[in-house]
Specification:
The structure is a single chain. A five-stranded antiparallel sheet has the order 3-2-1-4-5, with no helix packed on it. It is about 25% helix and about 30% strand. The chain is α+β, with helices and mostly antiparallel strands. It binds copper (II) ion. The site of copper (II) ion (CU) has 4 residues, from strand 3.
Length: about 140
């Protein structure tokens, strides 16, 4: 496959391949669909290599969408409240895409979420799975 990057410049004193220029390479890819495709592919590939990593890095630094953990909706019944441990244990129904029905403790980082809750309450709640596998309740309310 011919490409302007490999086309020798016969009128040059340098034996090395010439870089692509409008004047020197135009005839090289006019009429060569595969050549054009190759050039476009190279440009796309180079764009990806050169520009995507900085964009991803910027997202990470800014706390972009990709950095946020997924949120799950769940429901169940409170079986234990350990406010001093920032923990509520809930017998929850199956959480689609996460886990089957079970009784387990959840971390509650926001003190305000404990207000009005008692053992035996049926609740709807949302949780996130943090790095390291910790499950944190983000919102909870009685049904
Ligand atoms: Cu569970």
């Amino acid at each position: 496959m011919q490409s302007c990057y490999e086309k020798p410049r016969f009128n040059s004193t340098s034996p090395r391949s010439a870089p692509c220029t409008l004047g020197g390479c135009k005839s090289a890819f006019v009429g060569y669909v595969s050549g054009v495709t190759d050039v476009l592919f190279r440009r796309t590939f180079l764009s990806s290599v050169l520009f995507v990593p900085p964009i991803l890095a910027a997202c990470s630094e800014a706390g972009g969408v990709e950095a946020q953990p997924r949120t799950y909706n769940a429901r169940g019944r409170i079986t234990e409240i350990r406010r001093e441990r920032s923990s509520i244990t809930i017998h929850h129904e199956a959480i689609e895409g996460l886990m089957p029905e079970m009784t387990m403790p959840f971390t509650v980082e926001d003190e305000a979420l404990f207000e009005g809750l008692s053992v035996g309450n049926d609740v709807d709640f949302t949780l996130t799975r943090e790095e390291g596998g910790r499950y944190v309740i983000r919102s909870i309310r009685r049904r």
